[in-house]
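Notes, Module 5: Reading structure tokens.

Key idea: the token line is not a picture. It is a compressed description, and you learn to read it the same way you learned to read a sequence, by spotting repeated patterns. We will look at two proteins. The first is printed below with its tokens.
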Amino acid sequence: MPDQTGVCSIIASDLTMPIAVTEGKNGQLFGLVNALMTSLGLWERPQQLLYTELSVILELIHELSPFMVLPIAGVVERINPALREAAMNLRAGPVRTFLHITLPLSIPGIIAGTFLTFALAMSAFVAPLVLGGGNVMTMTVLMRQSMFTTLNWPLGAAQSVALVLLVVAMLAVYRRQLIDSDKVSGG
């Protein structure tokens, strides 16, 4: 298997970019997308892409994809290559080998990555506020609005407690899944 230090470094480099650089990059990206779509004739005129739900979703994907990819890569890297070779020797094709060997052994990485991205997406504040322009309502933006715009501190506090309880409940579910998958894989 090739050395994956460079690939992991490229994936992790997104984590070091400040939001201002990311916002500028998205602004340029959306400008390129608008130019491409209008030149291809798919759009009659440029569309509003910044300060929309789409821009927030794209930014969260950009921000959080390393937190999904790296745990999976770590687990896949530790899978014994002899298992895949044995499957191939037993005439299993690449799809069957993936479905019956690689995917089941990757479940702990998938669970860890899913939890990390879920927890970070639920607590995302800057991307929805900056790129959504305050127009995209997420739980964190709603808490800010409750506390600072309407000055309803009890509601904002209740919303923050609900968010924490939701994340803790999901953590308990993921922990249970991880324990169950360890029992199945014999870990």
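Here is the second protein, with the sequence above and the tokens below, as before.
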Amino acid sequence: MSEMMKATLSRRGFLAGSSLVVGFSMLGVGLAWSAPAQPKGPPFGDLKMYPYLDSWIGIDETGAITVYSGKAELGQGVETAFLQCAAEQLVVDPEAITMLMASTTRMLNEGYTAGSDSMMSGATAIFHAAAQVRGILLGWAANELGVDVAQLKVDKGVITAPNGQSRGYGDLVKGRFLHVQATSQPNLIPPDQYKIVGRNFPRLDIPRKLIGEPIYVQDMRMDNMAHARIVRPPNYGSTLISVDAAAIEKMPGVIKVVHENNYLAVIAEGEYQAVLAMRALQQAAQWRSPKILPDKNNIFPLLKRMKADTKVLDHRGGGAITGGNVLQAAYTRPYMMHASIGPSCAVGLFDGARLTVWTHTQGVYPLRDTIANMLAMPQDQVDCIYVEGSGCYGHNAADDVGADAAIVAVALPNRPVRVQWMREDEHGWEPYGSPMIAEARGTLDANGMISGWDYELWSMTFMSRPAGKAANLMPAWYLPAQFGPPQGSQVPLPSGSGDRNAIPTYALPNTNIVYHYIEEMPLRVSALRSLGGYMNVFAVESFMDELALAAKTDPVAFRLKHLPDQRSRDVVQLAAEKFGWSDAKTLPPGHGRNAGISKSITATLGTAPVQDFLDMMLVNAFSPVRLIEIFEDIVAPNGTIAAMSSELGSITNNEGRWDLYASSKAALDMLMKCYTAHRPDDRRAKLVVAPGWIQTEIGGAEATFTVEECIPLVADMLEKNHGKAGLRYVDRFDETLPW
């Protein structure tokens, strides 16, 4: 087993299905979801679909607790939140629980992790299941100890009677099963007794990310793993005319060229060998590529001309825009890409009968079903195991690269094959967010109130996830079966799709809100962060500002006049208060209120505002050392702790330039001296680094070095100092600077 895979078997680092062997041997009970049919459960999130408690909670005879979830940790923190929910109701320390999430080999089918639904559906189910498991354990303990349940106390997985006798959870489950159907009357611990939920609790996933441990699917390295790259055609409609792969197959490290109709890939021993072979294969391939994309400068007129399914979302009071001064505005949103930090990646392994894909999809079961459809395999012979990806909110290329991994793994049985998309793959082939148009018209009455509101919206789909349809996996378009084109769908309100948030929350007497849903996709589009929500909110709120201006009314006051709902009013008033809205009226001409801060970096102490000096000290001196103190425990005993300073912080060398900035960096240097002095036995290297005058927003274009030139020098310098105890003030060349 590789070091990467060994690292994934810890509780907080579970990545792949190999650790599930432990889960089976510990629990010793099959999960209820494997049954062909499920009885209807109580209305507590996904407990309604999967009512058996051992579908959610497992306890073995040693007292080890496992919590199962079909949701995925995408960086939003749900793994930690689920853990808190279970620990609260089981009355155990969170550290006593192992979380297993999102795998078709073991976990429930909770669909997609999307739409901010995980807490409502997944956490609610875990919360209630844990409470009912605790109730069952209390009942068993009461029988064994011969006392009433009300006399028992629970703490850290141990149930104690008034006479001091006790039973641990592990003792109580011996010879018993938790294959019990949930009821609609769980004995929940009340909120005023919470000790874990609602409290600050460290995220399970953050520490390893901060120190660069292998946690993402992009980091996976398995024994005997091969690497693949895919040759994409010039555009969606291209057809492969010919390809001579003979020379590519003889290139160093190349194992196989995969050629299936219009699908072309190369598998090699090394990753860079696969990249080189892919580039050569691109040159060897001849394509017929019809022009199918519209003029990029003509997208919005085209959007209005395309065939649309038109429906009225809201029509009140006649919906008429009549009389008075009619204001109107139009708002547009172009195609948008997810542009994930790490291009999509997946690993596939086919043993001749069973296919396993390690993937950062947001829905392991929908992807499993779709890959099975694409390859004409039985669903129960395909497994998808979730591994966190480096950056994904929405339908990016995670599902597509999972399909690539499946195709090339089947072409090379009995070896894991890793498919890493290139940056051009990610940006050129991922599903984008739909372009949109919103047109608003409105009128005001004599009292400055909105008397008419007309809003018209054009959008394509925001939902073309796989969901069992191979046509919605881009690689499947080019296989011999020629699946496609992709099929979109609409999500009805209130969740909505392109029409999400198109109906304002304001009280409007006359409204006419129309949605033009366009099925055609010149470029593939799907779910992207809040779907059509933020475009509609932007358009609605921008138009409210236009109307407030026409009414000669403060924008906040104008909104409050149209908000009868007290909760909505409270939100607007609190936001205005926190933002300092009322203070903005007293600012001098040419000034406004903003969330950002621009500091007087080059000002002298005689001219700089006092607050600028204080902010500079906080950001440049106090905060870095405070962060070092907070995270110092995650640095290895022989590791390196470094703070980025500046040569201007040297009192010896600085002749009196950049008063505020230099003072803050000198303060940072002093605080690092204090930090080191307080830890005389700490053997880690500590550095105050002056990287030089760098071409940044602060440094300016006339600076000596670019960021790209500086980073390798700093990295080499940090490496040289590894394991050298003590504090040094050095530049990027590892030369010691005078304090």
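Summary for the second protein:
- Residues 327 and 688 are 59 Å apart (CA to CA).
- DSSP finds 19 helices and 23 strands in the chain.
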